[in-house]
Amino acid sequence: MQNPSNLNTLNPSGKLTPQKVDSQGAELVTTGGVSTGFLSVTGALKASSGRLCSIVVTTVTSAAITIYDNASAASGNILFVIPAAAAVGTIYKPDIAAVNGIYASFAGTGSLAIGYN
């Protein structure tokens, strides 16, 4: 069963999991996203459905940074968590669908470059 935006699929336990193919069966792949956002404070990166593709730490993180599937708040499904003390240059490739948007919540300091669609 798919959700209305066709970005995730419900698995047998009722949890949303990323869909790996489009409606025509073509594999969904990413090399980093078609857009890049730069964040150093809590806020929205994308206010609509899309895909969290890549994250590059550009300033060391003093505390965890949590990225949510939400257009405007630090709540809802967690897409990814960047740990405290993530080093500059660390690259993460979550490649996960966001149904509602992409919102980052900084518990401390740090900076990120985020690739998304």
What does this structure look like?
The chain is mainly β and 117 residues long. The protein has one domain: Sandwich (Jelly Rolls), CATH 2.60.120. It is built from no helices and 11 strands. The strands form 3 sheets. Strands 3, 5, 8, 9 and 11 form a 5-stranded antiparallel beta sheet that branches. Strands 4-10-6-7 form a 4-stranded antiparallel beta sheet, with no helix packed on it. Strands 1-2 form a two-stranded antiparallel ribbon. Strand 1 and strand 2 form a beta hairpin. The two termini are 23 Å apart.
CATH topology: Jelly Rolls
- Beta-strand content estimate: 35-45%
Rg: 14 Å
Report low-confidence residues grouped into runs of 5 or more: 1-5
Q: Indicate the percent of residues in helices.
A: under 10%
Number of strands: 11
Topology diagram in text:
Layout: E1 8-10, E2 16-18, E3 35-39, E4 43-46, E5 50-59, E6 65-68, E7 78-82, E8 91-92, E9 96-98, E10 102-106, E11 111-116
Antiparallel strand pairs: 1-2, 3-11, 4-10, 5-8, 5-9, 5-11, 6-7, 6-10
List keywords for this structure.
117 residues, globular, 0% helix, 5-stranded antiparallel beta sheet, mainly beta
Gist of the model:
With 117 residues, this protein is mostly beta strands.
